[in-house]
Amino acid sequence: MTEYGRGPDPEPWHPQDPLYGDGGWEGQQAHIGQQPAYGGQPQYHPQQPQQPQYGEWVQEHQPGYGQGQYPYYDEQGHQQYAGHPQQQYQHHGTWEASGPHGQMPYAPDPGDPYGQQPAAYGGEQSDFYGGDGSYPPPQPPGRRRPEPEPEPEAAPEEEQHPFFTGGGDDDDDDEEHELHSRSDRRGKGKKPTKKGRKRRNGCACMVVVLVLGGAVGTAGYFGYKYYQNRFAPAPDYAGAGIDETVTVEIPKGVGGWDIGRRLKDAGVVKSAAAFVHAQNEISGGNSIQAGAYLLKKQMSAASAVKMMLDPKSQNNVVVTPGERNAGVYEAIDKKLELADGTTQKVARNEYKSLGLPSWAQNTQYAGEIKDPLEGFLFPGTYPAAKGMKPDSILKQMVADAKSRYDASGLTAKARSLGLNNAFELVTVASLVQAEGKTHDDFRKMAEVVYNRLKPTNTETNQLLQFDSTYNYLKGTSNIHISLKEINSNSSPYNTYRHKGLPPGPIGNPGEDAIMAALNPTHDGWMYFVATDGVNNTEFARTNAEFLRLKEKFNATSGN
User: What is the pLDDT of residue 10?
Assistant: First the structure.
């Protein structure tokens, strides 16, 4: 039990305790003629015998608490107590009223305002309510007065902010508003002035106006754009363009919108939408192919479409199925306006960095290969305009070939056809492309190649005997080759003397020839002859049939 409140002891506070809330005050009320608390009836408080403990009251040693210890207020309103002797602590911490033991009292608690007093009650006490800024002394219930009601705020006056009146701001208002804000944050400021309220109201109105204005402007902008996109004609130039020209490269597989965007970025047309509209309106507009186009800047969309349909505007190199690399190199030099032999030199010196597959040149005659890129410049149309580099065009051709070969699964199917690797399969396809004329011819021609390569071949003893391989070696296309010329040449490309396949492809096979090499016929074809010397190829299974076809050829060619 402490002198300020109830401790763990079950005994309640005595009703006559002067600190017993507002229900008591009997000591004070007795002086002013009030009735005792609880109607003057004694209250029953059950007592339980307990051993004195540290910090508890020793009831039997204290004089009657509340007897002659009435607080009173002096003229200055200070609370005083009288008739209470000084108390001391015993050695075990209990209160000793008589103090016979003469024990030294505990040092006063520095956190207890009453602990610094020379006496617990009565005597001189420090005044804790008389200083500036301190709380007023507590008043008995009979002397308490109600707190004054707060003053009603003045009614808001008519807005006089400079935003509405047209006046300007001055620095004094800003300084005054800043001082009020600082005082408010410290909790000691006064109410904001009317001028400050007016300024805030004006700023709020300005923010609302700006927000609403921005919303209206944004809605109008997007509404206009929506109308333009839906109903208004697409932006477009007029006329056939200016004198300045530009080359635009159109890759494979792109549509009208992609083409239009590329033309717009190059300054040819004003908008992709205008180009797409013209492309749909002009006959054949949707047949624009991939390639490089030499166009003028600031052309109308219709003029651009018509010029792209004109072959003269196309700066492309076209690789045809079966074409040899020598012809491709010449075409690139011409389109890029380079000296003759420039592209061929790049191919010979830089072929390893142009993207060939790892299985390329995998043959026992790798050192005898005439051109490492032969068979890997895939047939198609490729952009080739002045200013471009030969290696960039060659890389694109090689990349297309590698992609097509991988998609066809050459490596996996080569073994099943009796070949060693995919490179030999490309060589077979190039032979089929060079000797065949039609798709049906291609499949029969592929069977002829595979049958002659078999070790069991007793008709030609594994000799292909193709004129096309010798012509590739010579760079010619002669169908009349004498036996003397053939027998005198020992090159591995001379398949009249060397068994098996030539060292490598003899041209660039197309899609049909590749498919035929992968899916030959199985009819036992061993021989073939172009009986008309041009397009009509006939096939035979035996040497006797071959001799009859040869006589037919001689009769047709005049031999």
Answer: 52
Convert 178-243 into a string of H (helix), E (strand) and C (coil): HHHHHHHHHCCCCCCCHHHHHHHHHHHHHHHHHHHHHHHHHHHHHHHHHHHHHCCCCCCCCCCCCC
Residues 114-127 as b/e (b if ≥16 CB within 10 A, e otherwise) read: eeebeebbbeebee
Contacts 24+ apart (CB under 8 A), 284-291: 284/309, 285/309, 286/256, 288/250, 288/259, 289/250, 289/381, 290/250, 290/251, 290/252, 290/253, 290/254, 290/381, 290/383, 291/249, 291/250, 291/315, 291/316, 291/381, 291/382, 291/383
Are the beta carbons of 431 and 449 closer than 8 angstroms? yes
Rounded-to-integer distance, Cα 195 and Cα 176, Å = 10
Within a 13 Å sphere around the CA of 504, how many CA atoms are in the beta-carbon half?
22
Do residues 240 and 299 make contact, with C-beta atoms less than 8 angstroms apart?
yes
Within 8 A by CB and 6+ apart from 92, the residues are: 52, 54
Amino acid at 479: I
For the stretch 62-72, pLDDT in tens is 444 444 444 54
Please state, in angstroms and rounded to a whole number, the distance separating the CA atoms of residues 536 and 494: 24
Task: Return the closest-CA partner of residue 505 out of 387, 405, 382.
Answer: 405
CB 180 within 8 A of CB 193: yes
**DSSP-derived secondary structure for 530-548:** ETTSSS-EEEESSHHHHHH
**What's the Cα-to-Cα distance from 369 to each of 84, 357, 361, 419, rounded to whole Å?**
128, 16, 8, 18
- Tell me the sheet residues that pair with 95: 89
Pairs from 112-119 (Cβ < 8 Å, separation ≥ 24): 114/3, 118/86, 119/84, 119/86
Size of the chain in residues: 559
pLDDT, tens digit (0-9, with 9 covering 90-100), for 424-466: 999 999 999 999 988 889 999 999 999 999 999 999 999 999 9
Instruction: At 190, list the tokens.
Output: 């006064």
**What is the Cα–Cα distance from 251 to 380, expressed in whole angstroms?**
12
Terminal-to-terminal C-alpha distance of the chain:
141
d(CA 202, CA 165): 11
Tokens of residue 559, six digits: 């031999």
Separation between Cα atoms, residue 427 and residue 186, nearest integer Å:
93
Chain centre distance of CA 53: 74
Max distance between CA atoms of the chain, in angstroms, equals 160
